[in-house]
Amino acid sequence: MKQTYAIIGLGRFGGALLETLVANGQDVLGIDINEENVNDYRDIATQVVIADAQEDDVLRKLDIGSFDHVVIAIGHNMQASILATINAKDLGAKNVIAKAENKIHLRVLTKIGADLVVQPEREMGERVGRKLLAPNMLNFIELSDEYSMAEVQVVNPQFAGKTISELNIHKKFGLNVIAVRHEGEVLVAPKASYRIHDKDILSVVGPKDMVDDFDQMTNN
Ligand code: ATP
């Protein structure tokens, strides 16, 4: 479904986000104070504007409140990031996603009403760390402080040929197998009698530490 997006700040983060959304057929307005940055996206974005997003009436004139999603992708200039977030929320933007530089910035953005605050460097650092520690974990989503969802590839020959119930995945780990990918085919909600093959990718959901333990077990 086509949605409308406004991205304020066209640095590496905002720029990559804009390119991804446009490549997937979305309407994107890009805003940046720096003319050179704006020019980089002139032929890509639906519309670009050179403007200082912390000025009171800039976001109002652009009718920011009418966009489905507004992303504040300004990091270093914390004042601009905070004012742009407040202005976007005051103008009625339903979903404001803001990028934070550090923990304090994150707390402030959350307090002033950002619907989602991201810390790309921190999140990517954690992701790379997890990838190094658990190379079979293809994807990991933190659902809460306690629960996560992960895609784990089976490379332990002792797993292959056994059914989900024989492996006691639910009892031993407290995990639910919600899908299995076998040679490109996805089987949603597999039965307990499903026989696991080497290289199958299991999507599991459950307590975080158990997801980690399960990943270790699926290793050789
Ligand atoms: P990235 O990591 O995304 O490259 P950065 O942290 O290196 O970003 P920032 O200082 O966060 O750089 O700036 C991101 C973008 O936001 C820049 O292109 C900058 O010109 C733009 N920007 C900064 N202040 C404002 C403002 N007041 N209004 C609009 N755009 C702004």
TrEMBL record:
Residues 135-220 form the RCK C-terminal domain. InterPro entries: NAD(P)-bd_dom_sf, RCK_C, RCK_C_sf, RCK_N, Trk_Ktr_HKT_K-transport. Residues 2-118 form the RCK N-terminal domain. One of its GO terms (molecular function) is monoatomic cation transmembrane transporter activity. Coiled coil: none annotated. GO terms for biological process: potassium ion transport. Gene3D superfamilies: NAD(P)-binding Rossmann-like Domain, Regulator of K+ conductance, C-terminal domain. This is Potassium uptake protein. The lineage of its organism: Bacteria, Bacillati, Bacillota, Bacilli, Lactobacillales.
